[in-house]
Design a protein that fits this description.
By secondary structure, the protein is of the alpha+beta class. About 60% of the residues lie in helices and about 10% in strands. It is built from 16 helices and eight strands. The strands form two sheets. A five-stranded antiparallel sheet has the order 4-3-2-1-5, with no helix packed on it. A three-stranded antiparallel sheet has the order 6-8-7, with helices on one face. Strand 1 and strand 2 form a beta hairpin. The radius of gyration is 41 Å and the shape is rod-shaped.
Length: about 425
């Protein structure tokens, strides 16, 4: 700084002709603080408010970004005016300028971060935002901005070139890879999840190894939050959704039908051939009237051919109560308006077990709503369990305490008799 100009400023700032140098220094600092404060007040309380009034539809986020950038104005005044303060040591001027420069870099980084958040908010309002979120990419961009800001702040404070600091960071590449290992894995996983449309906000996923069973409520860079059906929240590392398996129920929800796969365990000893009287009695069921008629005609034709061939009557075919019940269940499901008839519909026997013969119902409801699905499934099996005695069949059930009580009571009555 020009010594003569400094002397003139010192004399101008002196309250008394023969005041000591520190008085001029304090006066210069006070004047600098006043100028920066006045500039800060004018920018934030006058200019920004004027802009907000001129643009009534201005969103809060751009205003917040402008308010943060407005901090640069008083910082620039301090950086330029600190050298005009008389009798201030050179090192104090240098330190102040470096700190103010670092503050300006930090302010710009925070403004850019807020702008990125605002971009994510605007994108989330688009129709396809739920299926292709960009929150993970926004977080990566913020990390890059903050890392660059930290590097520039160090360069400003140390008065060194950023390129020199970057060359020094090359030796720490291994350490950085170790520190940011989870971030790199999560970034790769986030890209794969988004590009392959493997996960969306709102999807119902099931991951038993992490006790996750519910709706996805948030997809971030490092974590995916799942709200379970008991209203607890499970946080899953993003990279584990790529390295481990999980079930996504989105396909079921988009298909419009939810599968029913449940079996009735039938006591095999109750299966038998139907007599003519039983067949006539079962024709009361309108659902299998046509089936019984067609079956009777088919068997009569077959059996007549066997008789003409002179074969033993053991080769004749007869209708069973088990097959008739299976046909009834199939017809009942086809006639149910709450069952999706365009999807797979099966009534099949499974491998017999020690608990009986499983007769499995395999079909899809016409709705995916959980409550409606459970109600439809319960109504179907309520009916089947109640109607099965009409076919002369019994369901298998392991003996209970009540069965033992009836047995003991019966034996006691026999002994008394």
């Amino acid at each position: 700084m020009n010594p003569s100009a400094n002397a003139d400023l010192t004399e101008a700032l002196s309250l008394f002709p023969h005041s000591p140098p520190w008085v001029g220094t304090l006066a210069g600092l006070a004047l600098l603080v006043f100028a920066s404060s006045a500039a800060n007040f004018i920018v934030k309380h006058v200019i920004l408010r004027l802009i907000a009034r001129l643009i009534p539809t201005a969103l809060p986020a751009p205003v917040a970004i402008s308010a943060r950038l407005a901090n640069i104005v008083p910082a620039v005044i301090v950086s330029a005016g600190i050298a005009l303060v008389p009798h201030l040591p050179e090192w104090a001027v240098t330190v102040t300028r470096n700190v103010v420069g670092a503050f300006i870099v930090l302010t710009i980084a925070l403004a850019v971060s807020r702008a990125l958040s605002f971009a994510n908010e605007l994108y989330s309002e688009r129709p396809h935002a739920a299926s292709r979120p960009i929150k993970g990419y926004i977080q990566v961009a913020k990390i890059v901005v903050y890392c660059a800001a930290a590097l520039l702040m160090l360069a400003v404070l140390m008065e060194q070139s950023p390129l020199l600091l970057l060359s020094g960071l090359g030796a720490l590449a291994a350490v950085l890879m170790l520190v940011f290992k989870d971030t790199i894995l999560s970034l790769v996983a986030s890209v794969q999840l988004t590009s392959n449309d493997m996960l969306r906000v709102g999807d119902w996923i099931e991951m038993p190894q992490l006790n996750a069973d519910g709706d996805v409520i948030d997809i971030a860079l490092h974590t995916v939050k799942v709200q379970n059906w008991d209203k607890t929240i499970t946080t899953i590392p993003t990279h584990r959704l790529i390295s481990e398996s999980y079930k996504n129920w989105r396909g079921m929800q988009e298909s419009g039908g939810r599968r029913i796969k449940r079996a009735l365990l039938i006591d095999q000893s109750s299966a038998h051939f139907l007599t003519m009287e039983e067949m006539e009695r079962l024709r009361r069921f309108a659902l299998i009237d046509t089936y019984l008629s067609d079956k009777r005609g088919e068997l009569e034709e077959w059996n007549a051919a066997q008789v003409e061939a002179g074969r033993d009557p053991v080769n004749q075919r007869r209708v069973t109560n088990l097959g008739t019940f299976r046909a009834y269940v199939f017809a009942y499901l086809q006639a149910n308006p709450r069952i999706a008839r365009e999807m797979t519909l099966l009534v099949r026997q499974l491998q017999p077990t020690a608990q009986g013969l499983p007769l499995e119902v395999y079909c899809f409801t016409a709705t995916t709503a959980w409550g409606d699905y459970e109600a439809i499934q319960s109504d179907i099996f309520d009916h089947l369990i109640s109607v099965i005695p009409e076919f002369g069949l019994r369901l298998f059930q392991e003996p209970s305490g009540f069965d033992t009580h009836l047995l003991v009571e019966g034996m006691g009555e026999q002994a008394a008799a």
